[in-house]
């Protein structure tokens, strides 16, 4: 698995994710407890928080959906955050790993490594032997 060092853009992404979470945090009715930010290949950034409910949706889904709704299709880096987690970064859940794999397998995801250091890895490396749609 290839590992990438964080850039200033990546640190900014973490700040943006924490900011959108701070502005929308709710651990009561709506359960907005995760922020997210994505950097597109063209330099645009999008942000979002998770949405709770019967089916709920992780912050990564909301953020990628927001970017796609704005016409974006090429993604560079994504991060999910909460200020109480190690380095404020949360690894994507299995469902989000699959979504990222299907939409943008080469997007870099900011995670903590085994030593607790922030690194970036490709979404495809977070989900070996992933399910893929069969095109007949
Ligand atoms: Zn998720």
From TrEMBL:
Keyword Signal attributed: no
SUPFAM superfamilies assigned to the protein according to its UniProt record, in alphabetical order: Cytidine deaminase-like
Keywords (A to Z) from UniProt: Hydrolase, Metal-binding, Zinc
Annotated CMP/dCMP-type deaminase domain residues: 8-134
A Pfam family it matches: dCMP_cyt_deam_1
InterPro entries, sorted: APOBEC/CMP_deaminase_Zn-bd, CMP_dCMP_dom, Cyt/Deoxycyt_deaminase, Cytidine_deaminase-like
Keyword Metal-binding attributed: yes
Superkingdom, taxonomy of origin: Bacteria
Protein family: Belongs to the cytidine and deoxycytidylate deaminase family.
The protein's name in its UniProt record: Cytidine deaminase
